[in-house]
Amino acid sequence: MMSKKSPQLRFEGFTDDWEDRKLIDIAGNISDGDWIEANHIFDTGDYRIVQTGNIGIGSFLDKLQNAKYFYQADFDELKANEIFPGDILISRLSDPAGRTSILPDLGVRAVTAVDVAIIRPNDNFHAEFLVAELNSSTILAKVDSLASGSTRKRISRKNLEGVQINLPTFEEQQKIGSFFKQLDDTIALHQRKLDLLKEQKKGYLQKMFPKNRAKVPELRFAGFADDWEERKLGEHAKYRRGSFPQPYGNKEWYDGEGAMPFVQVVDVTNKLTLVENTKQKISKLAQSKSVFVPKGTVVVTLQGSIGRVAITQYDSFVDRTLLIFEDYEKETDERFWAYTIQKKFEIEKLKAPGGTIKTITKEALSSFDVHLPQFKEQQRIGSFFKQLDDTIALHQRKLDLLKEQKKGFLQKMFV
Predict the structure, then answer these.
(1) What value does the mean pLDDT take over residues 198-205?
(2) What 8-state DSSP symbol labels residue 110?
(3) How far apart (Å, rounded) are the C-alpha atoms in residues 280 and 319?
(4) CB 100 within 8 A of CB 131
(5) CA 376 distance to own-chain centroid
(6) How many Cβ atoms sit within 10 Å of the Cβ of residue 252?
(7) Under a CB-based contact definition with an 8 Å cutoff, are residues 83 and 110 in contact?
(8) Is the pLDDT of residue 63 over 60?
(9) How high is the mean pLDDT of the chain?
(10) What backbone phi and psi angles, to 5 degrees, belong to 313?
(11) What pLDDT is stored for residue 252 in this prediction?
């Protein structure tokens, strides 16, 4: 029978029970960052401010484009705790409390906020092991349950110091810590590849469609030289809104034998696709009162998250909160058209107050200017972005699988 002090999954050669210890006894000392007020924050400076939002479960979620810095004078005045590469940072703020990362070398000196606890590596523990154990589901749940507060829940440093963890021999810590370090490095590598692909796609979208009043894009496939035609959307596309019988909550409109996917705003992703399974299914009785949309149709959301576009990947019925493109005045590539609509809404959002479109009518949409090349060029562009989308989706699946594998190991390799 397996001991309660032994994890489900272990490296070969280790059989001793793990020892119960308080976190403070292992860490030796746990300190906090300092209070950071708005007048301490600047867009440039010598010191990076690390906050709870930078701390992931085992990874440092660094977003340099949103970085804020201290000026030198403010750092000296505040006397904040300076942190160093290799320090273990723990979020005391819930969502969940206990998220732990090792600070990487940011290339600048850094300080941290008061809701971040700091453990400096010592000879009592292996750093990567401790980070992995603190991020295990058992310890995360334990730490988060100790968080309190009416608006923003946080764990006190005293409660954090008293958290019980289990410690194997240092040799076993090394094996486990190195394993998770390698796994985190692999995840980080895949994340960088995925981020790079998304940035490349963003760049292509900017260069492969005409800007402002230009008649041709900056970047084109060989063999195409004609100007793109500028038209009003309503002149080129035929469209209609979806529909659904009222009242929405009537049980007989949903599920049952012969029910089919019913697409609402919530079912449209930001990846030009619908979710795999719609939130609701429309009953056979209600189908005659809705709008059938065959697979491969472009739809766009008109309420809620306005401007999300999808090419439907299955037959479905569609709600009145979406617009359905049913036909075109000239032969049109669906994927090219989907990206045209998506880009048009992005431009309109920039014009809207606060960067958000509050409402959009069919009439307003009809007046949108769109640029259209010959059908063959549309096909080339559509195929190019489909291949790019497929590659991004493949890397996303690999990344998700790695994260799930890590989650499984975290559950099985700790007491």
Answers:
(1) 94
(2) E
(3) 11
(4) yes
(5) 35
(6) 10
(7) yes
(8) no
(9) 89
(10) -100, 10
(11) 94
Structural domains in the chain plus CATH codes: 1-17+170-223+376-415 (1.10.287.1120), 19-167 (3.90.220.20), 229-372 (3.90.220.20)
pLDDT tens for 365-405 read 888 899 999 999 999 999 999 999 999 999 999 999 999 99
Residues shown for the chain? 415
Distance CA 49, CA 35 (A): 11
Q: Which element (helix H / strand E) includes 128?
A: helix 127-134
Residues 163, 142: contact at Cβ < 8 Å?
yes
Measured distance CA(236)–CA(412) in Å, rounded: 58
| Residues in CB range of 47: below 8 A, 6 or more apart | 69, 70, 71, 72, 75, 82, 108, 109, 110, 111
Please say whether the dihedral angle defined by the alpha carbons of residues 167, 168, 171 and 172, taken in this order, is positive or negative.
negative
Q: How far apart are the C-alpha atoms of 89 and 81, rounded to whole Å?
A: 12
Q: What amino acid occupies position 84?
A: F
pTM: 0.81
The mean pLDDT value for 231-244 works out to 93
Q: Is 272:311 a contact under the CB 8 Å cutoff? A: yes
